[in-house]
Amino acid sequence: MSSPFPGMNPYLEHPELFPGLHHLLISEIARFLSPQLRPKYRVAVEVRTYDMDENSLQVGIPDVTIRSRQTANDSTTTNVAVAEPTTEPVRVRVPIPWTIKEGYLEVREVGTEALITTIEILSPSNKRAGKGRQKYLKKREQVLETRTNLVEIDLLRKGEPMPIVDNNIQSHYRILVYRGETRPFADLYAFNLQNVIPSFPLPLRSGDSEPIINLQELLNQVYEIYDYDLVVDYSQEAVPALSEENKVWVDGVLKEKGLR
Fold this sequence. Notes:
Helix content is 28%, strand content 20%. The chain contains 6 helices and 8 strands; from the N terminus they run αβααββαβββββαα.
């Protein structure tokens, strides 16, 4: 079954679904680009790794999970507790480090291995304060300081968008196409929940033919191939939560498709 929405499916932004979608969409973009880039270029899937603790991961995960963790580690009663000495153990909770792996794509020139273009799909950790955002922003700055091209895809409503100079542009989702040869200027595709995801060209070396990435089509293929219709419960509200206006629109779409 195909996705019921004309553009981004807000139910795929659920914190339990988006990490898998992120990896699958990265792979689908690579599969699409590879035959079009040969023989001058090749596309490679790379992985960025960093550690986070449980407290950092609580931001953006479902409320029911947050509540269960807060119950186990409730510090609202007092800042300092002095326990009476006892020979019996007290069960405590220790911080567990989590290893986060984020995939991204690199387009390199065959032979020289020169990095031509980086393709990023933002993850929830990139859009909230913490190590994930810090590490990504550092990598982003390094790319923007060079002639390397950058494609930055943001399919998440929640969180802080990546910085741009004209920061008064408001939209649910964004695609930034930055060409090193035109820096500091870039093309921003800003779109909302109701819109079809815009197609965009993949920047390469000046004068080369640039493939057009139809991200909407690729996302729909991922949804159908990996049976997301069997995972998403459209009788429930989307997570992260929608505005009241968008709830009404989503409800109308789902009723029209017979999913409510």
